[in-house]
């Protein structure tokens, strides 16, 4: 296999409208085939959804407040609450298969689609929309499968390797070898004082977790079959995983690799497309090709100096933020009745294993065989976006669960 030899270019300062990089230098790049046709242009006033762009990708930003859509004509950014298009950029040369936002700043990572004559799928562009210019560029010998951004790092995912770069000067900091990763699976923590990266390991069903700040690598044998989807909490202390079988979702302590909880989507095989953890780590949402979004009640609590939740009497025991695995031993809060185990759980150990898995607390039904991604909104709401160009906002009853209530539906792109 031909080895990837990444290259990057940068040489001039960036100015941003929101001060993400105040007084910093993160570079500039030359446009390939530079000229008017290769730059991203602001849309004309008469452009609307009647152009029927093909949708290549949808992704949330890091706080789930925005949705980025890669299309056959460029990209579009939407605010989620309320849902509305914030801006779009269109190309004559083709569209983007990957659009990754950096929170709500004007900085994005873009990877062109195969049909894009100016921006090929082996090149990553760091785009400053405030300046309407490319401020950084990475070129590889193989197709880019994914890009993830933090305020201080850029992570590029290839099929067998992951590269980690410093955002300020685009210098390569780390390289990680993975097993074949055509989905581009990778996720990051986003707290400023923790840098945790999760990616596929070298073996089937394995997740590799890098605690870069602690110089700790943890290999978690999460499933017997291939990993299909995973996500981290914002501080990176918890990991939720699903396999290609798609029946179980497991939650792990990333410091010691212990399994804290297991929930069950169903008994039939399914492709889990997305997993999301609520900011207070009380709820987990998952979407699959079966057309159902499931909400699960988590019995895991994380509390620390920078945690988004605070301990209360109803939350039970907590996990303390300390830099040792013994201090992070799993502590599971009592089952309060929400999302109970099977009523036959007193026979656990006699009955099949799935009777000890916890079933979903709330559900929402969608068209089958469409890829949907999920996120948590404000006030016990779930945000759902699909590759059919749809957006849903639903609410769930935090006490009784059951079928979720649809509060909003938008067809943002006519695919």
From TrEMBL:
Gene Ontology process terms (BP): autophagy of mitochondrion; glycophagy; nucleophagy; pexophagy; protein localization to phagophore assembly site
Under the cellular component aspect of Gene Ontology, which terms does the record hold? cytosol; phagophore assembly site membrane
* Cross-referenced SMART domains: WD40
Instruction: Enumerate the Gene3D superfamilies for this protein.
Output: YVTN repeat-like/Quinoprotein amine dehydrogenase (2.130.10.10)
Membrane topology per record: Peripheral membrane protein
Q: Could you confirm whether the keyword Cell inner membrane appears in this record?
A: no
Specify the protein name: Putative transcription factor WD40-like family
Q: Which InterPro entries match?
A: PROPPIN, WD40/YVTN_repeat-like_dom_sf, WD40_repeat_dom_sf, WD40_rpt
Where does it mainly reside?
membrane
Q: Does the keyword Heme apply?
A: no
Q: Which organism is it from?
A: Medicago truncatula
Question: What's the family?
Answer: Belongs to the WD repeat PROPPIN family.
Recorded hits in Pfam families, A to Z, give: PROPPIN (PF21032)
Could you list this entry's UniProt keywords, alphabetically sorted: Repeat, WD repeat
This protein's gene is called: 25489798
Q: Name one GO molecular function term.
A: phosphatidylinositol-3-phosphate binding
Q: Where in the cell is it found?
A: Preautophagosomal structure membrane
